[in-house]
């Protein structure tokens, strides 16, 4: 086993030297990694693909090149820059974390996993990834791609969801003492570029000779897949309420789905029980402009979109809560909108 383990780390590192993806947060050779960029990239990459992250990352770094600058930004500015990237609690955590890094650590990120774990928005995976990639600490990093690669290399037959300890043990075994950051990123690259879930490109793999799944011709069966449950469907309604070229916008609650983001009034879909939206129940309109479908990770949303025009809004004498704002339609794109709200807005424009 030690021979196989050494071979894996050596082959993978030399493959990385030749084939590493040139990503905007990466540094190569003797250049030092920038912990701030590693942190931003790791937070953005949670549940999001590299290709979707790159333009957001570049715009973010252009606007806030260091943590010091980011810590002086407002939450709504950060939410605006995050708009469309999804999982919006990440933007709020980023804002809170950046202030702590500025005030308690003088803009220097802590290096150990233990200290990183105390920061908002940094869980076990992200702490290990930052510690390894930014500081070259010997942390054991396990993401979805790495789970698959390790399961195949060592022929781990259990489904990855129920096999964390075994995967951790083998990942720990293959993690070298030097160039840990490069090794971790090499494993990630291998998983996304070569050892793909349903079509692994074994003929191009630098680890083909070490791979037990390949030797046994079972790479397509490892890791064992569990049949996914189909997602539940939720139904809701959204209201574009117009008045003098303005539309009614409010800020969502600071907890739960799309927390703290700007929104058209909606109801029926998010289990929020937001009393500020009770006035919607008195709206009696049948001017539906369209239906949209939107995918969240844990459910599919069917949203009906209604327009309430000025005459109806005025005549209904609706009791609009104080913290709702009338926003000029041409300024909508400056709001911190989620991709769901952008979809509703576009549907309104096309309607
Ligand atoms: S040989 Fe194939 S299955 Fe094994 S690690 Fe490489 S790409 Fe994955």
Radius of gyration: 24 Å
Bound molecules: iron/sulfur cluster
Strand content: 5-15%
Quick one: how many beta strands? Answer: 7
Largest β-sheet summary? 7 strands, mixed
Low-pLDDT parts are: none
- What is the helix tally? 14
What's the order of the H and E elements? HHHHHHHHHHHHEEEEEEHEH
Mean pLDDT across all residues, rounded?
92
- What would CATH call the class of the largest domain? Mainly Alpha
How much helix is in the residues? 40-55%
Shape-level CATH architecture of the largest domain: Orthogonal Bundle
CATH homology superfamily of the largest domain: Hypothetical protein, domain 2
End-to-end span in angstroms?
64 Å
Structural class: alpha+beta
Total domain count: 2
CATH topology of the largest domain: Endonuclease III, domain 1
Labels describing this entry:
binds iron/sulfur cluster; alpha+beta; seven-stranded mixed sheet; elongated; 12% strand; Endonuclease III, domain 1; Nucleoside Triphosphate Pyrophosphohydrolase
Describe what this molecule looks like in 3D:
Helix 8 crosses helix 11. The protein has two domains: 2-215, Orthogonal Bundle (Endonuclease III, domain 1), CATH 1.10.340.30; 233-350, Nucleoside Triphosphate Pyrophosphohydrolase (Alpha-Beta Complex), CATH 3.90.79. The chain is built from 14 helices and seven strands. Strands 1, 2, 3, 4, 5, 6 and 7 form a seven-stranded mixed β-sheet that branches. The protein is elongated. The termini are far apart. The model has no long low-confidence stretch (mean pLDDT 92). The protein is α+β, with helices and mostly antiparallel strands and 351 residues long. The structure holds iron/sulfur cluster (SF4). Iron/sulfur cluster (SF4) is lined by residues 149, 152-153, 194-195, 200, 202, 205, 207-208, 211, 213-214, 219.
């Amino acid at each position: 086993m030690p021979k196989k383990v050494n071979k894996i780390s050596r082959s993978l590192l030399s493959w990385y030297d030749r084939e590493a993806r040139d990503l905007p947060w990466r540094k190569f050779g003797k250049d030092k990694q920038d912990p701030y960029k590693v942190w931003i990239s790791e937070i953005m990459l949670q549940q999001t693909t590299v290709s979707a992250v790159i333009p957001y990352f570049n715009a973010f770094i252009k606007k806030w090149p260091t943590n010091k600058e980011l810590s002086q930004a407002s939450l709504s500015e950060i939410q605006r820059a995050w708009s469309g990237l999804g999982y919006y609690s990440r933007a709020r955590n980023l804002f809170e974390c950046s202030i702590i890094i500025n005030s308690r650590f003088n803009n220097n990120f802590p290096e150990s996993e233990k200290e990183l774990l105390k920061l908002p928005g940094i869980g076990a995976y992200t702490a290990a990834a930052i510690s390894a990639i930014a500081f070259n600490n010997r942390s054991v990093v396990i993401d979805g791609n790495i789970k698959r690669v390790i399961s195949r290399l060592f022929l781990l037959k259990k489904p990855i969801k129920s096999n964390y300890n075994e995967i951790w043990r083998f990942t720990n075994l293959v993690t070298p003492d030097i160039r840990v950051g490069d090794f971790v990123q090499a494993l990630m690259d291998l998983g996304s570029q070569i050892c793909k879930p349903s079509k692994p490109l074994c003929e191009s793999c630098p680890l083909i000779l070490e791979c037990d799944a390949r030797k046994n011709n079972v790479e397509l069966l490892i890791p064992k897949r569990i049949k996914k449950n189909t997602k539940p469907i939720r139904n809701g309604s959204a209201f574009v309420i117009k008045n003098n070229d303005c539309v009614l916008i409010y800020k969502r609650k600071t907890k739960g789905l799309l927390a703290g983001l700007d929104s058209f009034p909606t109801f029926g879909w998010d289990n929020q029980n937001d009393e500020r939206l009770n006035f919607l129940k008195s709206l009696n309109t049948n001017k539906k402009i369209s239906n949209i479908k939107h995918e969240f990770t844990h459910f599919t949303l069917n949203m009906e979109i209604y327009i309430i025009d000025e005459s109806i809004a005025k005549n209904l004498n609706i009791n609009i809560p104080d913290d709702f704002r009338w926003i000029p339609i041409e300024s909508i794109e400056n709001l911190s909108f989620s991709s769901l709200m952008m979809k509703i807005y576009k549907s309104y424009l096309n309607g």
